[in-house]
Amino acid sequence: MPPAPPPPVHLRLRVSLTQPHPLPLPSSRRLSCVTSGPATARHLSLRRGSRRRAPVRAARSEPAGAEGFDEELGRLLELLPGELRRSVEDHPELPALVEVVMDLGRPPLARFPSGDFLLSHRPISFDDLHQATAKVGDFGGDNRAGISRTLHRISAIRNRQGDIVGLTCRVGRAVPGSANLLQDLVKAGGSLLLIGPPGVGKTTVIREIARMLADDYDKRVMIVDTSNEIAGDGDIPHPGIGNARRLQVPNQEMQHKVLIEAVENHMPQAIVIDEIGTKLEAMAASTIAQRGIQLVASAHGVTIENLTMNPSLDMLVGGIQSVTLGDEEASRRRVQKTVLERKGPSTFAYAVEIVSKTELRVHRSLEATVDALLAGRMPNVEIRKLGSTGSVQQEVSVQKDQFRRDPYKIVSQFEVASLSNARTSLDSAFNLDSANGHIENSNVSEAGFNLYVYGGVLDIRGNCLASD
C-alpha cells in the first residue's frame, strides 16, 4: 500500500503577550505620558470662560527636574500670541496636539489627529513670527530649532532673502512603553533598523529604545543627535532618554564623523542615531556594525524595498549589484542572464517597517528579506499590533516561494518538502520564551480536496480526463 499522505499544515501562528510593566523611573525623571486620546493623559484644556492657566503657572513652581509634559506643552504655547494661545488651550483635544502652523499672511492652524483647527481669522504678521522665534534657540543649517530641555521642534520656512516667513511648531513627546513591541529584538542585542514615512513615530520609538537599553539592560548608550530631536534642545538632555548619553552634531554634514567619534572616544555598547540619509552616514553605520556595537537607527521609507532602490542607502541592506549569469545557470533559475543580488552582509540584523503607532512589520532576518525581494519572492514577516488593552498581538506570516512552473502540472512530493521547510524557517524565525507569552498553534487545514485515483487521469481541479 502507498504510504499515507502527510497531514496538512496551516502555517499561521498567533501570539498574545501581556504588555510588560515599565520599570519605575526615579521621581526626578518621571514624565507625564500623553498618547493619542485625552482620556489617557492629564487633561490640560481649560473650561471656556474661566481663562485659568493653572497648569502652566503651577508647573513653573516645581523643580526643574520634575518637569512633566504639561509644563513642556505650556512652554511651546508661550510662543503663540495671547489670542492664539487661549484658543489652543480651550480645545478639547489639547493633550493630543500634533503641531501649530503659522505662515505669514495666512490664518494660523492647530493640527490634531482629528483634523486641522482654525485658531483665528486674523492672518499671521511679521511681529507674530519675530515674537515666536525670539523665545527659541538658534536655527541651524537645517532650519530647525528647539526649546531648551523639551522635545519640541520648531522648523522655519524662509524667503529668498533668508527671512523667516513661516513656522511649524511640532509637539515632541516621550512616551514610555512605545517600544514594547520590539522589546525582544532590543534585548537580543542585534542591530536594528527602523523604516517609516515622516510623522509615523520613528523618533519616539528610537528614544524609548535608547532609554530601554540604558536603564533596563544597563548598557553604555551613546545617542548621535543630529537635530536634537531625540534628547531635546539645550545642553542638558531630556529625562526621556534615561541614563543614555548624547553627542550633539554641529551641522548635518558632520554626522558621519560624529558617529565614528562616538565609537573611538566613548566606548559605547550601543549607538542610537536618527534619520540616516546620506551615503557617508550609511558607510559610517556599516563600519560601526562591524565593530561589534549594537546599532539602532532609522531611515525614511515605507518598505525595505525602498532602501534596495535607493543608491545612497542600499549599503544598509548589504548593497545591490548586477550579476551576469551563464546560460546554464540562467536556464536552471529560469531567469534572465542579468539579475540583481546582494553584494555583501547587511549592516543590520533586524528591520522594522513602522506602519502606524500601533502596528509594525518585523523582519527577523534582513538579509533573507532582501534576497527574497531581489529574487521576486515574498519575504517572511511578523505583523505586531498593540491592542486596545495594552496587549501585544503577533502574527507570523510565512510566505511560500513563488516557483516558476506550469500551473497545470500535477502536484508532486515537492509540496511536502516545501511545507516542511516553511515550518523549519518558522521555528528559527520566531522563538519566544514560553514564560513570556502564550502561543496558540493551529493545525486546521484550509478548504481543499482529496484525490482517489484508480485507473484514470485527473487534471489539477480533480476532473476526470480519461478512465479505463
Automatic annotation (TrEMBL):
Residues 20-65 are annotated as: Disordered. GO terms for molecular function: ATP binding. It comes from the Eukaryota. The keyword Nucleotide-binding applies. Keywords: ATP-binding, Nucleotide-binding. Residues 44-55 have a biased composition (Basic residues). Pfam families: Spore_III_AA. Residues 188-319 form the AAA+ ATPase domain. Transmembrane segments: none annotated. This is AAA+ ATPase domain-containing protein.
